[in-house]
Amino acid sequence: MKQLVNAPGQVVTEALQGMALAYPDLIRVHDNPHYIVRADAPKNGKVALVSGGGSGHEPMHGGFVGLGMLDAACPGAVFTSPTPDQIQEASAAVHGGKGVLHIVKNYTGDVLNFQMAAELLQSDGVEVRAVIMDDDVAVKDSLYTAGRRGVGATVLAEKICGGAAEAGASLNEVAALCSSVNASARSMGLALGPCTNPETGQASFTLGENEIEFGIGIHGEPGRQRIPLQPADTLTEMLMLPILEDLPFKKRDEVLLFVNGLGATPLVEQYIVYRAAEMVATKHGLKVSRRLVGSYMTSLDMAGISITLLRLDETMRQYWDAPVRTPALRWGL
Amino acid sequence: MKYSLNFLNQWIVCAEQQFKAHLAELNALDAAIGDGDHGSNLARGFTKVVEKLQADKPATPAALLKLVGMTLISSVGGASGPLYGTFFLEAAKVAGDQLQLDDAGLALCLQAGLAGIQRLGKAEPGDKTMVDALSPAVSVLNKQVGLEMAAQKAREGRDATIPMIAHKGRASYLGERAIGHADPGATSASLLFDCLAKP
User: Fold this and answer.
1) Digit-coded pLDDT (tens) for A296-319
2) Cβ–Cβ of B169/A146 closer than 8 Å?
3) Are residues A256 and A310 in the same domain?
4) Inter-chain CB proximity A200 and B79 less than 8 Å
5) Contact (CB, 8 A) for B117 and B132
6) Shared-domain flag, residues A41 and A80
7) A to B CB pairs, distance under 8 Å
8) Which domain of life is it from (chain B) (predicted)?
9) Do both A101 and A140 map to the same domain?
10) Which of B34, B74, B75 sits opposite A221 (nearest CB)?
């Protein structure tokens, strides 16, 4: 696999240095430990939003740092959660006196590290709340698994909660809104091929020539089953139906439809999937009122897509529309 | 037997060497049922630990175990960082201020470490995790049968994870597809006990 890498051990550090140079007006990058904060942090009197996770999902989360979205992001090694001291330092750096909300994707490592960081922060007198995102319907949520994974809804929650925090909502209000977004969103994805970790050089899995992984996770972890490749419309409908059934979404629900590229799938294919997804949603009686298409939560160089459907209420719609100015999402300003 | 500061140092240096030597194997086991970086993460963490031990030269077993735990938590990431970090931190809490540990003291430390891992990770034996290697190894320590027997129990525990379905961590998403692969956490835990037996 050909990759634009200098040294495997420097992948995250050099990528962060590049981000710092590319967005000097929006973000500041801290080295040792790694974290990204908005250029004007800390914002006094505003709830601070902090997220993080393994690197390799860019632009998530560092690309969502800025006005109207995250105050800080903590990137771990590739596909490895950040560490408690890193999360603690980032949170302390952006704490503006109104508490810190941790938005955590439901992976064992992320949950454990954020939990330890919250304990450290609380012992320093910082008020911390955490919301665990788990919107992936591909995974069975049961006592016998680590629970559903956090995927596409995380991007939507960071935007919507960022809008609320910017508007002056309290920590409890922002946390409740985040939980509500998580509870109202469902996602599922598929992969056409594996991703290659630039730190190890290893492909995450192997697929047959005409095989796809249905229900893929964002680290290349398998989902429901391997099936033969089929036309985009068929596969899109196969992703949409379990999403629709799970919440369940009902006729006349107002929704945000998010088609997300996993890294190597070009926009032209994402638009084909978006077309099919909106047709399925409309056929189901949903009112699609907000949309997002693009590669926002990636899995390195994985080819594939995920679809997220969020049932909107007026508050969510208002904060989705609110201004945002980050490296990866910008509107209203 | 008495376990000196030097013994504990050698244990950790051995662990670093073992994780580096088995880096590719641990990554491959992790790739089969997780995300393929368990070896890289542990090698990175234990390299940091050995650097710290050489720089700080802790004066008691408790200080050494604490330094190992803190360094793992701040350098490994993933689930294994907090879990192994907690193992050493909890062991440090019961190590007292003696300059060396006896058999009972070492057993107490490792029991406390295992209890910490189980409290944090909520894993039970049979969940296909590091607990499957640690638990049988720690439980024979009380029986004064020697560290080699404990290491053997850890290896048996590791092998016992091969036919298991995982109930914790990323491997739990696989269901029956996890069957046939040894758990990477149980494998690294058995390497840790191999080093304890022959540091």
Assistant:
1) 999 999 999 999 999 999 999 999
2) yes
3) yes
4) no
5) no
6) yes
7) 102
8) Bacteria
9) yes
10) B34
Q: pLDDT band at residue A141, thresholds of 50, 70 and 90?
A: low
Are both A51 and A121 inside the same structural domain? yes
Q: Note whether B77 contacts A54, CB cutoff 8 Å.
A: yes
In the set A57, A95, A102, A284, the catalytic residue is A57
Q: Return d(Cα A51, Cα A71) in angstroms, integer.
A: 9
What pLDDT shows up at residue B109?
97
CATH number of B19's domain: 1.25.40.340
Give me the residue label for tokens 């994870």.
B161
Residue of B20, B35, B84 to mutate, testing the A interface (most A Cβ within 10 Å of its Cβ): B35
* Annotation marks residue A30 as catalytic: no
CA-to-CA dists, residue A180 to A151, A161, A174, A185, B132, angstroms: 15, 10, 10, 9, 37
The residues of A whose Cβ lies within 8 A of any Cβ of B are 33, 54, 76-86, 107-109, 112-113, 116, 139-140, 143-146, 149, 197, 199-200, 202, 204-205, 217, 219-223
For residue A154, give Cα distances in angstroms to A7, A305, B54, B165. Answer: 30, 15, 42, 29
Q: What is the mean pLDDT of residues A157-166?
A: 98
| Residues B133, B96: Cα–Cα separation, whole Å | 26
Q: What is the pLDDT of residue B145?
A: 87
Average pLDDT, chain A: 95
CATH of the domain at A210: 3.30.1180.20
**Number of domains composing chain B:** 1
- Structural domain range at position A240: 186-319
Question: Which residues constitute the domain of residue B34?
Answer: 2-197
Is A219 an active-site residue?
yes
Q: How far is B78 from chain A (nearest CA, A)?
A: 4
Is A10 within a domain? no
Q: ipTM of this predicted complex? A: 0.82
**Which residues of A are less than 8 Å from B126 in CB distance?**
none
| CA distance linking residue B63 with residue B8, whole number of Å | 11
